[in-house]
Design brief:
The chain is mainly beta. It has a single domain, classed as Ureidoglycolate hydrolase (Jelly Rolls), CATH 2.60.120. 2% of the residues lie in helices and 46% in strands. The protein is built from 1 helix and 14 strands, in the order E-H-E-E-E-E-E-E-E-E-E-E-E-E-E. The strands form 3 sheets. Strands 1, 6, 8, 9, 11, 12 and 14 form a 7-stranded mixed beta sheet that branches. Strand 3 and strand 4 form a beta hairpin. The longest helix is centred in the N-terminal third of the chain and has 4 residues. It is globular. It starts with 6 loop residues before the first strand and ends with a strand. The model has no long low-confidence stretch (mean pLDDT 91).
Length: 164
């Protein structure tokens, strides 16, 4: 007898839907015009990168496309800093996130799919799956760097499958 995995539908990435886990980064009609009115500056945030002797680190990840279905078994979190992901080009990504104090709370598991031109910032302490891209992509990541590694891993009680 085969057991089916719990299916988690991926919702479009929106500021409102993603708010419990962080913020969405994208061009906006809101902001302030700078450079003689030639650029609209929209700020992303808030960012937290300097806790416990941390510093801002900008890295580029070269990610290979994955099947969004999974199954996905493990989440990670970074308690001491935010992480901002900015897919470069026309990449779409799937975000698998959860809340929880000591471990991911399965009742809070959520999946989102970004559209090209969208990035996101994970609030410090948000459980999330490692980068899942639907298209091969380079992804710029702004995160906290420090001597001590700030990454906790946790297994999900049951693997989860994402539906797009």
């Amino acid at each position: 007898m085969t057991r089916s995995l719990p299916a988690l539908p991926a919702r479009p990435l929106t500021a409102e839907g993603f708010a419990p886990f962080g913020s969405v980064v994208e061009s906006s009609a809101e902001g302030r015009w700078i450079n003689d009115g030639n650029s609209l500056r929209s700020e992303a945030g808030p960012l937290s990168l300097d806790q416990a002797a941390g510093r801002a680190v900008l890295a580029v990840f070269r990610a290979r496309a994955r099947d969004a279905r999974g199954p996905w078994r493990e989440l990670e979190r970074h308690r001491l800093g935010t992480q901002t992901f900015l897919p470069m080009g026309e990449a779409r990504c799937v975000l698998l996130v959860a809340l929880g104090e000591d471990a991911p709370d399965p009742a809070t598991l959520a999946a989102f799919v970004s559209r090209p031109g969208q990035g996101w910032t994970l609030t410090a302490g948000t459980w999330h799956h490692a980068l899942i891209v639907l298209d091969d992509a380079d992804v710029a990541v702004l995160e906290r760097g420090a001597e001590a590694v700030d990454c906790e891993l946790a297994q999900l009680p049951l693997p989860v499958e994402i539906t797009l």
